[in-house]
Amino acid sequence: MPTFDPLPLRAEFPALAREQAGRPVIFLDGPGGTQVPQRVIDAVAAYYREANANTHGVFATSRRTDEILAEAHAAVADLLGAGSPAEVKFGQNMTSLTFQLSRSIGRTLAPGEELIVTRLDHEANRGPWIAAAADAGAVVREIPVRLDDCTLDLAALDALLGPRTRLVAVGYASNAVGTVNPVAEIVRRAHAAGALVFVDAVHYAPHGPIDVVALGADFLACSAYKFFGPHVGVLWGRAELLAELPAYKVRPAEDRWETGTANHEGIAGTLAAVEYLASVGDRFGAPGPGTDATLRARLMAAMTAIGSYERTLSARLLAGLAGIPGLTTYGIADPARVAGRTPTVAVRLAGWTPLALAAELARRGIYCWDGDFYATTLVEDLGAAADGGVVRLGLVHYTTVDEVDRLLAELAELAG
């Protein structure tokens, strides 16, 4: 496998050229939305120039819109390992799509039936299911978190599953502390109890390969703006379930889940983001699949290479953080366990509120988030909610080793 080098890839991202006080800015804000390559910007602009029309018309721009939407559905199906482009649905964002799906599933619930959520998840994978259960008179049960390393208690899941369980909602990875959950195992246990599984893959999608068939999941959602594209949400579901569930739609609409006029320009940009990822596979895949390989093969090569590189970054960051006095790392902090996390690290530094620390890092040209990032329940359980939450350091594949070292040096100086 060619050695992963982020520098030629960084050249494709205009935002990464930004400087502040004569120094390059370090973007560690990826968990809230990654930067985008030029080809995504070009695709959005080109849509407006060359194809700006609604769908299914008899004229050229409408037909070009139809082509772009079809290509984008197929590309995202390849990204997720879906059996058919028809199983991919675009929407406003993951939160809106999850509310839409939960409302539909909620119509099928009977009083006393049960849904399971986790205390690790983003509220977008808790609130919709809690609301659906409340509307139906169903019961919500919660998988607790082992707070020492922010991993799910699977023994507790076994105790929660039962004949009345209808659905388990779980995140592929925590957007706050980076924990990667054993989703395939959770799916296996849930299906053995007769329950469906919904997976929130928003945070995981830019960090590793996804195969919905291998996972065995029933539904999975993600967001293009977390994998180097525009603000577009994606829902995948098993075809038979999407066809059977009650859908909220206007009468003439041909698609049961894509309601109204879609964000065509954003979907065009999403297609370009998938094509960018495939190009990463061409550069750094093993043995380098090339453009004659299937798009799925190129994407799997890309995400495998990205995951491997990011684990080296995570290990370096975690090892460095461990040597900074007064700094607390939440979640998996052992560099030897980086396979169980994404390169998203939550910290606090003694003597600094999270807001003050993030502001000082921003003053020094290091952009990162503070707060709870809608992982409100987890941050409450960690005892960090009352005074500002945590600081989230989000590395992605365009992050360099030098940037990690500069971050560590700045944190060490602030600790002093």
Q: Indicate the overall shape.
A: globular
Largest sheet: 7 strands, mixed
Structural class: alpha/beta
What strand order characterises the main sheet? 4-12-11-10-9-5-6
Termini separation (Å)? Answer: 41 Å
CATH class of the largest domain: Alpha Beta
- What's the average pLDDT? 97
By CATH, the superfamily of the largest domain comes out as Type I PLP-dependent aspartate aminotransferase-like (Major domain)
Please count the helical segments.
14
CATH architecture of the largest domain: 3-Layer(aba) Sandwich
Content of β-strand: 15-25%
Give the C-alpha Rg.
21 Å
CATH topology of the largest domain: Aspartate Aminotransferase, domain 2
How many structural domains does the protein architecture include? 2
The overall strand count is 17
Q: Pick out the low-confidence regions.
A: none
Query: Helicity level, as a percent range?
Result: 40-55%
